UniProtKB/TrEMBL annotation:
SUPFAM superfamilies: S-adenosyl-L-methionine-dependent methyltransferases. It comes from Silvimonas terrae. It holds the Pfam family CMAS. This is Cyclopropane-fatty-acyl-phospholipid synthase. One of its GO terms (molecular function) is cyclopropane-fatty-acyl-phospholipid synthase activity. InterPro entries: CFA/CMAS, CMAS, DUF7884, SAM-dependent_MTases_sf.
Amino acid sequence: MPWNHLFEDFLGRMRTHGIPLRLQLWNGKHFDLHPEPRVTLIANTAGSLRHVINPTLDSLGKAYVEGEIDLEGHVLDVVDIATQLAAAEGDSSRPGARNGRHSRDSDKNAISYHYDVSNEFYSAWLDKNMVYSCAYFRSEADTLDQAQEQKIDHILNKINIQPGQRLLDIGCGWGALMIRAVKQYGARAVGVTLSQNQYEYAKERIAREGIADRCEVRLEDYRDVTGQFDRVTSVGMFEHVGLKNLEGYFRRIHNLLVDGGVAMNHGITSTDVNSGDTPFGGGDFIDRYVFPDGELPHISLTLREMCAAGLEPLDVENLRRHYALTLKHWAERFEEHGERMRKLAGEQKYRIWRVYLAGCAYGFTHDWISLNQIVAVKAGGPNMNRLPLTRDYMYRG
């Protein structure tokens, strides 16, 4: 069937859904699917219509990233309407769990691909301390800077860090958590990352803060860390581990803890009980362009593998709504600095990150994905759990 007949058939189906979208063709013609469109999708060639008339979040995202289509409108509206298009045509069932490669080289390459864009790129839309993980909002009116500092304190209070204790931060990012643990809580900290940019930034900041005698950053795989630590934190890192490697990951944390040691795992989880992917092709887009080999376990699998590795979960907190708020802040800030982002990352990466951040905000808002903090202790024996009996200590000033 010629493309114009397929397109007319598509328009007829879509108009029944009332999606507030304007479709504009390369020849200047446009078609409104709603009297008040909020987003304009521009098909730059006749060939690009194949992505439009068979829409998934992956096909639309790929067409946008590759420049086959352009999208005008606020980026949060863009993702909402792209999802409406995909939902009107597609199957809402969730694909099965992924199985990434996860060799040491592939993990290092995946981390470098995602995190080593440039420190200037990230600093333009993250908070002042460069925290790239879910914030903790006491109020929706909190600034991003406030919420990220509150998140770090929330974690350090939950693990009941004490002066002089040794802390290992796995996937330490740009160093904000370990530096605060040293300066405000009196800990001695080691952070590990596979990102060269993060390593160099954190090392320079540690030196600038004058805490190099108590705080160290290493360019090191968590599987190569040796020694014993009173506390272990992992924030926004276990998404890269792989479902088949979860028990080994938690077993490594278990072995690095002293008897009575406490761990905190803060990570994104699937809301599908079978650890399935997000619907409508969103996970395919992320795997293709953003997080190669990323895999998200359901909370039940996370707890199972944690227990199998000899860790006893004591506290689980779902911060899904907090991550939705965090990502809306990031997406708004990214949009505000759009021209600068283009110059820093280039057109294609600008497009990837623009729709990725907004897409994740949508996913967390609509319960496609979640974020769980789990506090656990090294299991075994009556004296292994030395945390207070109640949660009151977690909310101290």
